[in-house]
């Protein structure tokens, strides 16, 4: 009685099947690793947005304590990383201020002066844009924030 292992080429067949199984497992592992890396980058981006929003909250509280809330209406055009630097260290991937989004060449955080937006360029060269939104209830319908009449609803960085 002949077994499968006694046939000519059985060793080669086992080797080829083993290699195919290893390649399939390695491909699946690399796919999952890439996906987890992309997910981790998105979570890190969301954490940075939350840190900036925390820093902006501190700015609002400081202005309120100094009775200078009129300065809030100008904050939505400014670089929020300036306020983040006041309360903590800037992120390692902060690349600085650029005049327009076209000047962005590598992954990281930027502030685009042309549209007053924060841009995060991911490792896959996809850009995520954020803007500062200052919201208040305009009680006298003047169209401008007046600290003595209006109440602040929010000042936060949000995706465009």
Taking strands numbered 1, 2, ... along the chain, how are they ordered across the largest sheet?
A: 1-2-3-4-5
Shape: rod-shaped
Taking all Cα atoms into account, the compactness measure Rg is: 27 Å
Number of E-state strands = 5
Tell me about the biggest sheet? 5 strands, mixed
Indicate how many domains the architecture comprises: 1
Note the run of SSEs as H and E. Answer: HHEEEEE
List low-confidence stretches. none
Alpha plus pi helix count: 2
Distance between the termini: 73 Å
What is the helix content? 40-55%
Question: Average pLDDT across residues?
Answer: 86
Instruction: Label the structural class.
Output: alpha+beta
Classify the beta-strand content into a percent band.
15-25%
Describe the 3D structure.
This protein has one domain. 40% of the residues lie in helices and 22% in strands. It is built from two helices and five strands. It has a five-stranded mixed β-sheet with strand order 1-2-3-4-5. Helix 1 crosses helix 2. The longest helix is centred in the first third of the chain and has 56 residues. The relative contact order is 0.12.
Helix-strand blueprint:
Layout: H1 10-65, H2 80-87, E1 94-98, E2 108-112, E3 117-121, E4 127-137, E5 151-159
Parallel strand pairs: 1-2
Antiparallel strand pairs: 2-3, 3-4, 4-5
Helix pairs in contact: 1-2
């Amino acid at each position: 009685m002949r077994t499968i292992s006694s046939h000519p080429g059985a060793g080669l067949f086992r080797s080829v099947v083993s290699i195919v199984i290893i390649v399939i497992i390695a491909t699946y592992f690399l796919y999952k690793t890439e996906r987890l890396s992309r997910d981790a980058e998105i979570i890190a981006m969301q954490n940075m947005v939350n840190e900036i929003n925390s820093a902006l909250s501190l700015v609002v509280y400081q202005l309120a304590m100094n009775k200078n809330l009129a300065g809030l209406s100008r904050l939505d055009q400014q670089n929020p990383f300036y306020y983040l630097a006041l309360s903590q260290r800037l992120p390692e991937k902060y690349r600085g201020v650029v005049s327009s989004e076209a000047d962005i060449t590598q992954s990281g955080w930027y502030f685009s002066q042309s549209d007053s937006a924060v841009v995060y360029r991911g490792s896959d060269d996809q850009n995520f844009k954020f803007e500062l939104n200052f919201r208040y209830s305009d009680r006298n319908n003047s169209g401008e924030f007046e600290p003595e009449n209006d109440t602040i609803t929010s000042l936060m960085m949000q995706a465009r």
